[in-house]
Amino acid sequence: MPEKNKIIIVDDEPQALASFLLTSLGKDFDYRFYCDNPMDALDYVAEHQVEAVFMDIRMPQVNGVELAQKMLRVNKTVKIIFITAFTFDEKTICEELGDRVLGFAYKPFDPMKLSSFFAQIEDRHMDVELRTFAPFDLFVDGVAVDFSSSKSKELLALLTIYNGSTLSLESSIAKLWPNHDVELSKRLYRDAKIRLKSALESAGIPNLVSFGYGYLRINKEGAHSDYWDFLEDKTKAYSGVFMTGYEWAKEYKYPMDLKVAGLR
Hints:
Helices cover 41% and strands 19% of the residues. The protein is an alpha/beta fold. The protein has a 5-stranded parallel beta sheet, sandwiched between helices. Strands 8-7-6-12 form a 4-stranded mixed beta sheet. Strands 9-11-10 form a 3-stranded antiparallel beta sheet.
């Protein structure tokens, strides 16, 4: 039986260690926890093949960033994920330690965020599904992504319909805010755009959408959608239910109904 990949968790709070384990249950790794003596983790990393270290930053015995620096010097392949309840300058820390720092997981732990880190550790692609034959939803590894605003989610739905083509600011406003004045519509668009970007980053798929100046575009590589499959005659799963709740979706539903009826 092959040896499991090793994951180390370094945190001085036993409750945080328990929370991490509960959140990551089902992930097939060999876990080792270091609570009382964080420096012992350095010795283990130096002598063993370790895939990744989840490291608290504020610990009474040692600063997590400094300990991570030492680990990166003694192990040339280990990846670092910082776990913390406090806000730090992520950009500065990542620039200081290099590209083997995968990012930050904030307490209380977000299962989807941890799942995205595990996918990177395993060097596997995450399953990204854009489901349209129902109320629209985005799933990552089978888990629905939460959005902080309904309009940011609706903006992603519209991008899915655009099927990789460029969606301009003007087209977005015409579909999502048709009855607002121009300046208000632009503010609402910018807010939805920012919230969409944040949701995708939290889900571990920041590259699903390209965010340009005045335009957006969905990147179809690494994602799949029942709508795209329907357009390419790869599925017959469409039963007349499509993006319920979005008035503009009726414009795209009509040709689908014609196609199913054999009239197009």
